[in-house]
Amino acid sequence: MDLDDTLIPDRSAAWAAVEATLHSLGVARASERVQSVFDIARSCWRAGPYFESLKGLGISSWEALWADLTLASVPEAGGWGLRYRLEVWGDVLRTAGAVAEADREDAARQFVRHRQELVRCLPGAAEFVERMARDHEVWLMTNGASRLQRLKLSLSGLDQYVARVFVSSEVGHAKPHPRFFEAVSDALLDDQAVCLVVGDSLDGDVRPALDRGWPAVHLPCTRVSLIGDVVPPCSHRADAS
Ligand SMILES: [Mg+2]
Fold first, then answer.
1. Is 233 a domain residue?
2. How far is the CA of 141 from the centre of ligand 1 (A)?
3. Element (H, E) at 198
4. pLDDT tens digits for the chain (241 residues)?
5. Residue 5 Cα, ligand 1 centroid: separation in angstroms?
């Protein structure tokens, strides 16, 4: 199973958390400024010293706004990640007309709080995973920072059903890199086989599974709009960096 935007909302939750943060900071026309926060984050992310390494590990600019980037393979990323958050929110507030040093720290903290509060399962996801776990081992295959993905799993309550977790930053390669899927294959015991892969990404989840002869189901991201009462629809087009 994939995690982000398959079992729990990711992009739409990030969008909603940014909007809530801007609102709570008293930024005027908060809903109109959300895309600019993603744009600033992407720009700072790409200019950062670890962009290529972190991209290869499947970590995105908006996730890094609340991720603990403590990573064995990029030891300096943890400290840099905290500075990155402040840089992004500093730029956001400067653009909005506020420049106080304390503001950006408050903004960075508030975003983390809002984002954590928005970790929840998509409708039917917990029931599906619970049912699957009765007769099967549920393995999670997810891109992102190790601590963040495991935090999401725990906050969503899905961890109780998941027997094994593959996080790209731990594997060393992100989906759809073949080495990620090799790590999953290598972990299968002789009497185990993959009976179903479920994911929202055709390139990251479905095609690599089918290439290995694993049955797969595609859950397109548009279904995130079904949780309009939980978080707003996935209306932006933030890319995977
Ligand atoms: Mg996904």
1. no
2. 9
3. strand 197-199
4. 999 999 999 999 999 999 999 999 888 888 899 999 999 999 999 999 999 999 999 999 999 999 999 998 999 999 999 999 999 999 999 988 766 666 999 999 999 999 999 999 998 999 999 999 999 999 999 999 999 999 999 999 999 999 999 999 999 999 999 999 999 999 999 999 998 999 999 999 999 999 999 999 988 865 444 433 333 333 334 444 4
5. 5
Give the C-alpha separation, 98 to 93, whole Å.
5
Residue in this structure with the two tokens 């980037």, named with its chain if needed: 69
Tell me: cis bond preceding 75? Omega within 30 of 0 counts.
no
Q: How far is the CA of 27 from the centre of ligand 1 (A)?
A: 31
CA of 94 to the centre of ligand 1 (A): 32
164 close to 187: Cβ distance less than 8 angstroms: yes
State the Cα torsion 25-29-35-41 to the nearest 10°: -30
**174 and 81, same structural domain?**
no
Ligand 1 centroid – CA 159 distance (Å): 17
134 CA to middle of ligand 1, Å? 23
The answer to whether residue 99 sits within a structural domain is yes
User: What domain count does the chain have?
Assistant: 2
Domain limits for position 173: 125-227
Residue 141 in domain: yes
CATH number, position 198: 3.40.50.1000
Residues by chain with Cβ below 5 Å of ion ligand 1: 2, 4-5, 200
CA of 31 to the centre of ligand 1 (A): 25
